[in-house]
Amino acid sequence: MPGKADVVIVGAGIAALALAVELQNKGISTILLERQKGPEGIPRGLTFQPNGLAVLEKLGALGRAKEVGSASQILEVKSWEGEVLLEADYGLLEHPQNYLLTANATEIERLLVYLAEKVGAQVLWGASFQEVLQNGGRADGVIYEAEAGRDEIRAPLVVGADGPQSHIRTNLGAKVKTKKYPDSFLVGLVGPVPGLEGRARQYQSPGKMLGIMPSGPDATYLFHCVGPRSFDRVKKEGLASFREEVVQAAPEMADAFTGVEAWTKMAYFTPSFIQVEKWVGNGIALLGDAAHTFHPHAGQGVNLALEDAVALAGVIEKCKVARDFSQTPLLEYQKERKMRADVIGKHANYTVTYALSDNWLIKRLNKRALHKLNKDKKLQKKALEITAGIFEKKPGLVTLAKIGGILP
Ligand SMILES: Cc1cc2nc3c(=O)[nH]c(=O)nc-3n(C[C@H](O)[C@H](O)[C@H](O)COP(=O)(O)OP(=O)(O)OC[C@H]3O[C@@H](n4cnc5c(N)ncnc54)[C@H](O)[C@@H]3O)c2cc1C
Prior knowledge:
The chain has 12 helices and 22 strands. It has helices at 14-25, 50-59, 62-68, 105-118, 167-172, 231-237, 239-249, 301-322, 327-356, 360-375, 377-387, 397-403; strands at 7-10, 30-34, 45-48, 70-72, 74-79, 84-89, 100-104, 122-125, 128-135, 138-146, 149-154, 157-160, 176-180, 184-190, 199-205, 208-214, 220-227, 266-269, 272-276, 280-281, 284-286, 292-293. The longest helix is centred in the C-terminal third of the chain and has 30 residues, at 327-356. It is globular. Flavin-adenine dinucleotide binds at residues 10-16, 33-36, 44, 46-47, 128-129, 161-163, 167, 187, 269, 288-289, 296, 299-303, 305.
């Protein structure tokens, strides 16, 4: 068992694995602790935006990701009745990866595990974080619990990449603002849908939302809002009734449920918006969902997490050279990344509120905003730059008000 490394990362999700690849490539030894037994989970799709795709390319993962996923250049928004409200064209973006890529999340995790281990990172599967070790007022490693019992890893930097309910964040004592959304979602991978090639489609109507995205050669990622219903209630209503609900909005999904006989192919979740005031401390840094969790409607969580990983690796390299992993040098990472997370978190919050609200004023604004974005390609490009995570400076209030249909 290894007992020492330059960096110990709690969690081996996509953000953690990307960081491990970057660190090992810089000659910084890395151990990851993951409470799960391996990179397995309920099959679900994950959409990568241009900013995340650029990082996958840097990690040497883009080619394979494209093989297992599906690229879409058009993001189409339709009403429940089938009227096209917006055709957003990623081709308008001046970016080498001007498209969306949706893939099975587990396949991407497996790919990154392979790349991280290839460059020498060690992943301890089935290892649950227990405690942060302290030395002179700063973190100095962690204690974890595995099948073989309790053990410890000493490292001058502990990275919390342990997701939205991060224990490392609690340990850091960071102030957290959490908003739980009232509507829950069912997600899963179903069969192929004819005519969806090159398109990500979303149906929306007040209180309703259905996303369908091609995800690899034979699969479609389904993202369906079930409102305030519990998973038990949806299950009681039955798979046939769920299918009917989906097909009512999207008749093209009629044959996609062949082979989906059990709820085990679907995951239920209620999104949250988590804003974290402080991302770093003495010998500690937070990464990915541990530092920011958004509504997945924006499709940015994993993309920002990948960018965070690259930024954090650069700062860690400087800390290693200076032999200083205290809060002061680590703050450079927070300064570089937090503004982008704040902009995208708020954008996700507003777009999902617009899409689902039953309030007459918001409904009108949403319709106006979609209509305007559809017609005005310059404005569409500005809005897409935010969604794609490639905006250069913080968008001003006037731009946001125009995108939101508030200003003409
Ligand atoms: C249904 C759904 C759909 C989504 N769709 C998209 C999308 O299309 N595009 C997008 O950009 N984002 C999407 N997101 C968000 C995206 O999945 C997350 O932002 C991203 O996965 C965050 O990665 P992470 O590595 O920070 O955290 P996670 O993937 O949550 O990884 C954290 C890891 O830490 C481990 N862990 C936790 N506690 C411990 C512990 N005590 N000890 C050891 N290990 C521990 C967990 O087992 C887990 O493996 C979606 C999220 C959901 C829920």
